[in-house]
């Protein structure tokens, strides 16, 4: 008996599965074709986008080649190859040196006017900063908002890079588009000392606020930001504690807190631009701690401002206009503290 073969006319499934998962994933987008005759190992390369860095597949054995300066310049722009001198995450200094040696543009700028040196200085890459400078990077090149590499390294508090830039003759008094020098933007005492020892002007004025010209000095900035150590250093090397900005404000006017005010007062400036002493200001704010501290420092309770008012007059005026929310016991204490002096 011949065995019957199964039928090959099986019914066709009328619908496709809802989701179709291919066995092989989609291929990686192709890398732009490089020029020829120059080899770089990619074993540990990374791909870079404008937003983030993504680990690349192992491209060991692959190579790129180049022959002309035009090729090199184009290659330096290829973020996806990880060879862009502007790439802030790229740490392969050997590749950077090779690119530069073969003609990549050291002082090329991005749309914000940043050069590779700006990015290296801001990112804290000391070796790259040294390499770029040794290859004639423009140390005092300015971004679109007129910041130099020294401004950026100072903002980011990279001490070693600041030292490298200063030794490369960076202009310590270069000003950004708000008329600020590196000394204006620092919040670090050690950086302030380094800048001043190398010629930074401690009394240089700035614009700082884009809406109006303020004329703040570094001491104004330090007082406003509560940078006590920086303030002490600036005063010690001769910063003017009585200088007024373009709104007639002294550093005392901008004092962020009592400790800042105390530093200024101890160094000779007890009066702000309106003739108010620190005690006038403390009385107007009903600040018990400040009043107590200032009196202990020997503040003049009889001092008169430009309106002829004493701190006690200011206290009484403030109480009359705000007595509905001020504790009477607090007012009595303030009044007696000032009166008894």
From TrEMBL:
Renumbered residue ranges of the record's region Disordered: 1-36
ANK repeats (start-end): 112-144, 145-177, 214-246, 274-306
Organism whose genome encodes this protein: Mytilus galloprovincialis
Sorted UniProt keywords: ANK repeat, Repeat
Keyword Repeat on entry: yes
Biased amino acid composition, Polar residues: 1-12
InterPro entries in alphabetical order: Ankyrin_rpt, Ankyrin_rpt-contain_sf, Multifunctional_regulatory
Biased composition (Pro residues): 24-36
Protein name per the record: Uncharacterized protein
UniProt entry tagged with the keyword Repeat: yes
Coiled-coil intervals, chain numbering: none
Gene3D superfamilies reported in the protein's UniProt record: Ankyrin repeat-containing domain
């Amino acid at each position: 008996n011949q065995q019957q073969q199964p039928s090959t006319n099986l019914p066709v499934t009328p619908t496709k599965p809802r989701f179709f998962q291919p066995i092989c994933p989609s291929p990686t987008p192709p890398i732009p074709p490089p020029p020829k005759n120059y080899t770089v190992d990619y074993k540990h390369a990374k791909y870079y986008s404008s937003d983030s860095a993504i680990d690349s597949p192992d491209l060991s054995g692959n190579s790129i080649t180049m022959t002309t300066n035009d090729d090199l310049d184009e290659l330096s722009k290829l973020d996806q190859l990880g060879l862009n001198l502007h790439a802030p995450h790229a740490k392969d200094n050997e590749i950077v040196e090779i690119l530069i040696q073969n003609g990549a543009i050291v002082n090329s700028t991005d749309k914000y006017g940043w050069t590779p040196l700006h990015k290296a200085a801001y990112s804290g890459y000391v070796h790259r900063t040294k390499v770029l400078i040794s290859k004639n990077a423009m140390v005092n090149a300015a971004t679109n908002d007129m910041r130099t590499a020294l401004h950026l390294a100072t903002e980011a508090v990279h001490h070693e890079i600041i030292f490298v830039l200063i030794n490369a003759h960076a202009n310590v008094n270069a000003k950004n588009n708000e008329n600020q020098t590196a000394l204006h933007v620092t919040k670090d005492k050690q950086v302030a000392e380094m800048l001043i020892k190398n010629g930074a002007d401690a009394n240089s004025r700035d614009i700082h606020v884009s809406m109006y010209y303020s004329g703040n000095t570094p001491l104004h900035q330090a007082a406003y930001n509560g940078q006590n150590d920086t303030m002490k250093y600036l005063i010690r090397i001769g910063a003017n504690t009585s200088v007024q900005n373009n709104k007639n404000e002294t550093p005392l006017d901008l004092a962020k807190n009592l400790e800042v005010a105390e530093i200024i007062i101890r160094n000779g400036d007890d009066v702000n631009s309106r003739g108010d002493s620190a005690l006038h200001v403390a009385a107007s704010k009903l600040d018990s701690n400040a009043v107590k501290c200032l009196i202990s420092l020997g503040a003049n309770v009889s001092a008169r401002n430009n309106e002829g008012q004493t701190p006690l007059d200011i206290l009484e005026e403030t109480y009359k206009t705000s007595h509905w929310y001020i504790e009477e016991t607090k007012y009595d204490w303030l009044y007696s503290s000032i009166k008894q002096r």
